[in-house]
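hiii, so i know i said id send this last week but things got crazy w the move. better late than never?? heres the sequnce for the chain we talked about at the cafe, plus the structure i predicted for it. fair warning i was half asleep when i ran it
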Amino acid sequence: MAIEKRIQLEDDAISAEIPTSEDITAMEDGGAQVTLTDQTEIDEADAMGLLDEEPMMDTEHDANLADVMEDAEVQAVAQELLEGFDRDKQSREEYDEIAEDGINLLGLQYDDSAGSFPGSSGVTHPVLAQAVVKFQAKAYKELFPTEGPVRTVIMGTQTQEKLDQSNRVRQFLNWQTQTQMPEYGPELDKMLFHVALYGTSFKKTYFNPALQRPVTEFIKAQDFYVDYYASDLETAERFTHTYSMSQNEIRKYQIAGMFRDTEVLDSPMDGESNAEETANEAVGVTRPSMQKDRVEMLEMHVNLDLPGFEDENGIALPYIVHMTDDNTILAIRRNWDQEDQAKKKKHFFTHFTMIPGLGFYGYGYLHLIGGLTKTATSSMRQLIDAGTFANLPGGFKAHGLRVLAPDEPIAPGEFREVNAPAGDLGKSLQILPFKEPSSTLFNLMDYASKLASQFADSTDNVVENATNYGPVGTTMALLEQSSKLFSAVHKRLHAAQTKDLRILTRLDYEYLPDLYPYEVAGGAQQVFKKDFNLKSIDVIPVSDPNMPTEAHRIAKINAIMSIAQQNPAAYNMEQIGMELFSAMGISEPQRYLKQQQQPFSADPIS
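okay and structure toks below
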């Protein structure tokens, strides 16, 4: 009597006929030969799972695992992830209130309702906005110079092959960040504003299949949720990027096979957060009251023990899950290299911080000088209100005194008729004793604003207040002492941009063809895919973490020049001059050099 068993391998069903007990059939189990001689042995093999065990589904490494999983399993994973996201969201509920406070303190709009009486001042002291804008300008200039943000260093012994590879990678990445990726500079600029204000912001660099190139975008900290226990992105068990997509975009991804082909409902209109509403009011825009054809998306980078794809050691593996806020999973993909036996998580996000805080999020000028900004703002409003009362005083008038058009203010030089009883008019009016604006209050405002500005422009004050540079050592000491805060912040930004550029280099290694030609001004260039395998070279920003400002670089070159002038024959004065021109940002400095006449040979008569 024949016994039929069906064994499912991958996505195909393969039928196999089990022989009778009289036949001898060898079955392979991990290289061992099992011989079934009678029904008893068949039953034993069946009990051990040798006949009807379903092996783990074997799919393409980059496949959407949600397409091959059971709907019940997908739903269970979605529920688990949504619960984790809700916990992350609840753990930082007050962060949105801090964000709203920061927008208000920038003073981007006049607050008519700030005072306690109609017509009171609603002005905001600009010390916080000044600090943020100055920081953004200095940092953007250093991290994204005109010639490009990338330079390369050779690891190990320098060879001609490594030098050529280094030059190709440097030239391509500078062309890529300036030409192929036009959003790189603007997104970096917007991100630096948020880093200065809130102390934390993120950049996401990924390959866009629609554009067929890497893309980078800035992400607000309000749209990025991290596991409460995480200390950095590298070791975080879960972090989530929230954003909005149109139904049309989702359909494109479904047709391209990036998302699971399932019904996606429009997200309900939950309303804006207070911070979003305040930011929109500052620029004069309003979120549409009817949100149609929009879906709120959650992109979760999380460690999962995925059903059907469990690790043999019971370790949760890194995955990227795209899902909607109504618990619909669209994609689950592995987030490690196929050749990586350790299965390390691949990174697409970079965390930029101004000053490390007590937890995951950093501190910005909002935390450092927010209190001083409130003090300066309160003092300024009181001074303005005091001046208003002193210039347009109010008071009491006698009951029998009638003034023509009493609700209209009296214009300068105007005399208005009154109906007064017999007697002196001055006896019928009593002006309240309003004081002139207080000098003490003005000094308090000035002290608070100067104390706050020291966080932003102390280096500028050294340069602006100096009649001349004086001794080089004194100038360098002043600059060093005045720029300690920005120097440390600049080093953190330099380290974060290094991570971002390495992510971009990894994407180029994964998606570029073996040979990639591209056009630049003045000719054609080419780069090889193998060039981006960072073993012989490394990619770092062109900014110098030890020289955070142009003033530092100029002072440094001046110091070198003053030493070289004591013995010009021992130094290359032309090279020192060229570096000084470069530090000053002068293009084509060769035109300032005196052209030397080349010697020539001729006969005596000539």
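btw The two ends are 117 Å apart (CA to CA). thought thatd interest u
miss u guys!!
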